Amino acid sequence: MAATRLSRGHVVTTTAPTVAEIWNWLDAVPDPEIPAISLVDLGVIRDVAWQGDTCQVTVTPTYSGCPATTIINLDIETALRSHGIQKLELKRQLSPPWTTDWLSDKGRASLEEYGIAPPQPAGGPAHCPRCASSDVTRISQFGSTPCKAQWRCDACLEPFDYFKCI
Amino acid sequence: MTVDQALFQFLLRLGDNTLILGHRVSEWCGHGPVLEEDIALANTALDLIGQTQLWLGLAAEVEGKGRSADNLAYLRDAWEFRNLLLVERPNGDFGQTLMRQFLFDAWSSLMLEKLCDSSDIRIADIARKASKEVTYHLERSSDLVVRLADGTAESHAKMQAALDDLWPYTGEMFIGDDADDILVANGIAPNPADLRAAWLTIVQRLETESTLTLPESDFAHQGGKSGRHSEHLGYILTEMQWLQRAYPGATW
């Protein structure tokens, strides 16, 4: 889409970034608590759209009390402003509620590589992210962030984080 | 009472339940029996405080007097709070804290399930979000109360004592009033009494899967929903609201 603005008395036409470009920029913004994956991988960006000359980004929280929510909004704003977007509106969307089904395949692979077992429908990790053994035991339903639980590998004996399935 | 006035009361009740219970559970932070349980308690408290922001945020919006969720949490005194007496009960020992959590989670999961179908879309949206978190809480609290009740003679005795102590505070969850009637009539919220049978089914796990005995008395302490609280709430607020009381209007 095109926008016009005055520059030194002349009317110039600039092309606003496309929605696809903005998605790419957002895919470069790391999750503040699990920097191995991007906000797009996490599935919290629900929509990107232009409303006139305002860029609207719709964000959904992971857990209602997650302290990273405000940082995520701040990081989105910082990233898009650095790409020259001046009019920006962040909308919070609660419904449908965030689910780990929205984690991208790229994100799931990055999590595993980083040492965090990705969520599984069965409710527990498929295998240890370090040695791939399926001999694993739950230590706690909760972990260092609201989205994780603690597990232990009984083969290599290493504890590891599991991304809770909700 | 108008629908909005009834709705405001109802939202305060939901938000004050999660706020006061969230604060209570957060008192365990750094004091849990083992690190994993400490973290679990802190995470549960965090979810509850997150839900509080949503409920009290909507309460403030419905009230329409320019107040925020923070204003409602930090600038009201005890008689303006609408939480159940159950959630302000002292933490006691770890077993007592878990029993209180289980009795509340069981009720909360049922209430939220019904609210997912509320005629008020704002309420349904929050309920769908909170419902997932509370389902997870209930999974943990029910598992732990059963295991502790079915553990050693000492853990069994402590869990039975906790159940006996908290039982008279559960009846209030199922007693409706004028505000509830208005919301029921408008399809906004369920009749509190209608949740009781399903709640009992969940709670009866304590008898069927462990070895506890549910108290027979159905005597219910009540008052919290209309602002008549036990002495414990004042102490909670003194700590929780300390900053705003000492430095009114402080922000950061």
Question: Could you walk me through the main structural features you see in this protein, from its secondary elements to its overall organization?
Answer:
The complex is a heterodimer of chains A (about 170) and B (about 250). Helices cover about 20% and strands about 30% of the residues of chain A. Chain A contains four helices and nine strands. In chain A, the strands form three sheets. A four-stranded mixed β-sheet of chain A has the order 6-9-8-7. Chain A has a three-stranded mixed β-sheet with strand order 3-4-5. Chain A starts with a strand and ends with a strand. By secondary structure, chain B is mainly alpha-helical. Chain B has a single domain (about 5-245), classed as Ferritin (Up-down Bundle), CATH 1.20.1260.10. The radius of gyration of chain B is 18 Å and the shape is globular. Chain B starts with a helix and ends in a 6-residue tail after the last helix. The mean pLDDT of chain B is about 95. The interface between A and B is medium-sized, with 22 and 26 residues.
Question: Which key features would you list for this structure?
Answer:
heterodimer, A: 166 residues, alpha/beta, GMP Synthetase, Chain A, domain 3, 2 domains, four-stranded mixed beta sheet, three-stranded mixed beta sheet, 4 helices, elongated, B: 12 helices
Short description:
Chain A has helices at residues 19-26, 39-42, 68-82, 105-114, and strands at residues 2-7, 10-15, 45-51, 54-59, 88-92, 116-117, 136-140, 148-153, 159-163.
CATH topology annotation of chain B:
Ferritin
Question: Strand-residue fraction of chain B?
Answer: under 5%
| Largest pleated sheet of chain A | 4 strands, mixed
Q: Which H/E pattern describes the elements of chain B?
A: HHHHHHHHHHHH
Helix content of chain B: 55-70%
Shape label of chain A: elongated
Derived structural class of chain A = alpha/beta
- SSE class of chain B: mainly alpha
Number of helices of chain A: 4
Whole-angstrom Rg of chain B: 18 Å
Give the overall shape of chain B. globular
Let me know the average pLDDT of chain B. 97
CATH topology of the largest domain in chain A: GMP Synthetase, Chain A, domain 3
Give the termini separation of chain A.
Answer: 38 Å
